[in-house]
Specification:
CATH superfamily: Carbon-nitrogen hydrolase
Structural class: alpha/beta
Radius of gyration: 17 Å
Largest sheet: 7 strands, mixed
CATH topology: Nitrilase/N-carbamoyl-D-aminoacid amidohydrolase
Strand content: 25-35%
Number of helices: 5
Order of helices and strands: EHEHEEEEEEEEHEHEEEEEEH
Length: 275
């Protein structure tokens, strides 16, 4: 199955971001991708963290969701919409916060899975300060979906977002449920990405003997923030199959389910767990 990991440098206005995302999705489809994965916050990286809250949608209803559903239908693609702001499952938050949600759409435009980011990022290194809990509500449930590819294999896909990458128990849960592909749409800071991005992604692939596809924000944004980028696809042995350092683009890579079977037969570590 060909997969497209889409890198963006999203700006502070919704319409141009959606237009650019549509161009990149079309490029992915033209290159033969069956699945395209957008990065975290593909729709907006505003001047303030609170800017995204004005775009919060109810699940199943809203212009961002309608845009992705239409693109899936028109392009015949499975699309995972990196993240967008949705009303939390329990209803409007008292502090006005949203869920940072990753949605999977089938080629007929149906939303087949919703994952709300479990782990909320916080950093204060003296130069940068981030606290996602000020604007976001954490999710509670890991989510997988199945994608029957044209090649005949039914891919079991585990959803995650950005900071989740630092919590290996989430991905081990997915592996225990039979996941063979792990998605990590992200907007890593330049500082943390330079230090840990590739190392963590390859580790998640190696320890779970699964493919990892990680589309990212990558470049200097309209709001002055610089994201690390380096959108990456890793195979079940931890080898980097493809990478894009900076700038917008569709990184298309072919995944072979036989590699998963071969590696898990050679090194059946998933069956050796004792804890």
């Amino acid at each position: 199955m060909k997969v497209a990991a889409i890198q963006m440098v999203s700006g502070a206005q919704l319409a141009p971001n959606l237009a650019r995302a549509r161009e990149l999705l079309a490029d992915a489809a033209a290159q033969g991708a069956e699945l395209a994965v957008l990065p975290e916050h593909f729709y907006l990286l505003g001047h303030r963290d609170t800017d995204k809250l004005a775009l919060t949608e109810a699940f199943g209803d809203g212009p961002i969701q309608a845009f992705v559903a239409q693109a899936a239908r028109e392009l015949g693609l499975w699309i995972v919409a990196g993240t967008l702001p949705l009303t939390p499952p329990q209803g409007p938050d008292a502090q006005g916060r949203a869920s940072n949600s990753s949605l999977a759409f089938a080629p007929d435009g149906r939303c087949v899975a919703r994952y709300d980011k479990l782990h909320l990022f916080r950093l204060d290194n003296g130069d940068e300060q981030f606290d996602e809990a000020r604007t976001l509500v954490h999710g509670d449930v890991p989510v997988m979906f199945e994608l029957p590819s044209r090649g005949g294999h039914c891919w079991r896909i585990g959803l995650s977002v950005c900071y989740d990458l630092r919590f290996p128990e989430l991905y081990r849960h997915y592996a225990a449920q039979g996941a063979d592909l792990l998605l990590v749409p992200s907007a890593f800071t330049f500082h943390t990405g330079e230090a840990h991005w590739e190392l963590l992604l390859r580790a998640r692939a190696i320890e779970n003997l699964a493919y990892v596809v990680a589309p990212a924000q990558g470049g200097t944004h309209e709001n002055g923030r610089r994201t690390w980028g380096h959108t990456l696809v890793a195979d079940p042995w931890g080898q980097v199959l493809a990478q894009r350092e900076e700038g917008a683009g569709a990184l298309v890579c072919e995944l072979d389910e036989r590699q998963i079977v071969r590696r898990r037969q050679q090194l059946p570590a998933l069956g050796h767990r004792r804890l």
